[in-house]
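Notes continue from the previous slide.

Worked example: a multi-chain complex. Inputs as given:
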Amino acid sequence: MFFDKIDLELLKTLCLADGVSGYEDEVAKIIIEYIKDSCDVVMRDSVGNVLAFKKGRKTSNEKIMLCAHMDDVGFSVKHINEDGTLAFNQVGMMSTVLPSKTVRVGKEKINGVISSRPVHLCRDKTQAVPQEDLVIDIGAKSKSEAEMLGLFGTYASFVSEFRHFGNGLIKAKALDDRIGCAVMCMLSKEDLENDVYFAFTVGEELGGTGVGAALERIKPDIALVLEGTTASDLCTQDEKDKVCKVREGAVCPFMDGGTMYDNSLYKHILSLAQKNNIKVQTKTKIAGGTDGARIQRSDKGVRCVALSLACRYIHTSSSIGSVEDMNCILALARLFVNSIE
Amino acid sequence: MNTLQKILDTPSASGRTNEMQKLLKDELCDICDNVATDVLGSISFTKKLCGGKKLLICTGFDAPSVVATFIDKSQINISPVGAYNPASMAFSCIKFENVQGVLVPSSNYDPSSSATDYVVQTQSEDEAKKVVLGDIGIFDEKYQILSDGTLFGFSSSTKMCIYSLLSVAKKLLSPSCTFLEENGIGKICFSFISQQSLGNRGASCVSRAFNPDFVISIAPFDMTEKNVGSFDFEDGLAVKMLDRGFVADEKTALLAEKILDFVGAKHKRRVSNASHSAIDKLCLCESGALCAEIGVPFKFGTTRGECTKKVF
């Protein structure tokens, strides 16, 4: 099998699934169902990572691992208030992006809305509401009614449609990093040159809680991290601060907040892109971090590189990415895997 | 040229340690059994002896630098790689692979600006275009050595750590030396660890690769830290017993002191409440390693005037 384009139906299914850090089961089930017949080994480890192995036409000298994280940003319910609203902790977001967003809470997917302060009551209209003043309103009449639903300690996820948007763009929640998961799922169905280990990890947004267990089991020599990354490419931003741009191709960073990527692999990917006429860009600002930080420093050291999707409004309910950029990531990831000796 | 001067003249930035690796190979290859580099840029020299225990003596060997992130006409936007005081480093020479420039404020000079508020000014737009995004630029600064061995210059304590480890290695591995065997050391590894200035990133990989029983880390020690008691260059090296991340193993600390006595370096025990060394990562090898740390004292850290003193 060979995919020349990203499978948007698969990406849609993955993006619409709830997978807040620590609660990745829904995403894991979709992935396992998709890859179970095409991989030689598929398993879920004790921390929740989905790990898979696919035999290639040959076994490369260095063990190759592809890695993408299943979790996305969201909320955990930390307390039920007297009025039946839910106090929450957030994972990976600023409180400025939260007021009045719709969410669903827990496995029962109970509808909720994050509170906001009416403009009429704001003395300073430019001031953001602090997170501790925000709650999730699930429409309960009282604390006891909310308690009956068993929501204490559970998670909440954004409700956001998956939409084709403008000229070749996709708007959805969790493009970071369901795009990485989608690319790996698709590659697992292809006939690849080399043996590949796939690590769909949990807890990346919590600082990489899952990837350590995956590394202990797989012990790779080379890793390609597939990710979503910050694109701040609107006209309101200085050119130098845009980080990367939507529609400018796959993002191959030389460095981020947690990792100095392997310089030879970085140059190898740029060279593959140039030879095969695939659009690629790098980041013009050091921002963010990936599972690559843990991967690179695991065992005696792992050569690590990343390919990311430029996402506008990353870590919000509506991230935006380009389908063409996604196709570039798919093509480059395949070339990378097949090019290792 | 003496060894310290060679070390001072050799650049070694995080992730780009090739030149320093070459210098260290020239100095140590002949007296070691094996040399190995890892993916993060660390280099380790090992020698097998007649004894049972494995000892790792190591230090970080990279200095903070900058990385090119955006080219804007004749200016190169940069991000810091490791920590430095931008106000102090303003107007320093920056050397990329084939382009030189000067670190200047991107707009008006303000001593409180962050490191990303500075750019590297090159000679021309054509010059700046020669730099590729991701290229590392090093601080191309000169060092001053006073006649009493006091050394001034950016990241001078890291340079002194490299020099100290190299000196220790040469003395311990000299043909007539039986110190290591006498102390039950069966295999020794001298490691120069990369990406130390980025939060000791290289330490755990080095430790896992050698799997030592004991680790003695040589690391910069800020003698101006509060709550560490009085410490002066005249005290020599600091055998650190405690910091925020570790408590030294008494036996390993004693071994470190014996080594310092053997190589003729003055030393004094210290505790530190403030700093955080690489020890917490170095001890994380397969069987767990007992650790101690030798501090190379310095002051005015992360500035152009960083000051340390030669003890060997």
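Summary box: Residues 82 and 98 of chain B are 22 Å apart (CA to CA). The interface with chain A takes residues 14-16, 38-40, 42, 67, 69-70, 72, 77, 79, 81, 133-134, 195, 198, 201-202, 204-205, 208-209 of chain B (CB under 8 Å).
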